[in-house]
């Protein structure tokens, strides 16, 4: 995660995620793993990069204009208040209230995107799917299991937020729980494939 974060534009985040799931799946298959397995996600660089871009581009398209409009509105409200003889904090409070509402909507959209892309990297690693196909199937499976995945992501997010108490270091200590939970959910929905026969992925049923 650290390596994926420091590389510009998040170019290595996808391959690093693939390496994590590759190690988890090999563990579930009872195969020995070593530290180098985490870096074998680079073998899926192209497909992982496509999945990463498809995930983050909608976020950028929605978040950046919203933040720009907010600051423009805030500056306009300040100028309008300063031009009046009597201070009118109502304009600033109105802009701030609108921003809070919009921010909650953005958070909801980000959560929906997180659910939709939950299985993208596991599908690339386990089913050897292309980035685009993995994203499309992940979206189908994500919405087919939306509320269960939402509960799981909220729970793991709560656990990660508790890790922030330890000067943010605890987040990295608890991340394995998050990835293992997603890998377990993937196994319940799709099952681990036999890499020798590489069967097509089944339809996305609900998992318990």
What is the N-to-C succession of helices and strands?
A: HHHHHHHH
* Overall 3D shape: elongated
Mean pLDDT: 82
- Rg over C-alpha atoms, rounded to the nearest angstrom: 21 Å
Q: Main sheet, how many strands, which sense, barrel?
A: none
Determine the strand fraction and express it as a percent band: under 5%
For the termini, the CA-CA separation is 29 Å
Q: What is the number of beta strands?
A: 0
- What share of residues is helical? over 70%
The helix-and-strand class reads mainly alpha
Can you tell me the residue ranges where pLDDT is under 50 for at least 5 consecutive residues? 196-200
Number of helices: 8
Topology:
Elements: H1 2-6, H2 13-28, H3 45-83, H4 89-116, H5 120-126, H6 131-144, H7 146-163, H8 169-189
Helix pairs in contact: 2-3, 2-5, 3-4, 3-6, 4-7, 5-6, 7-8
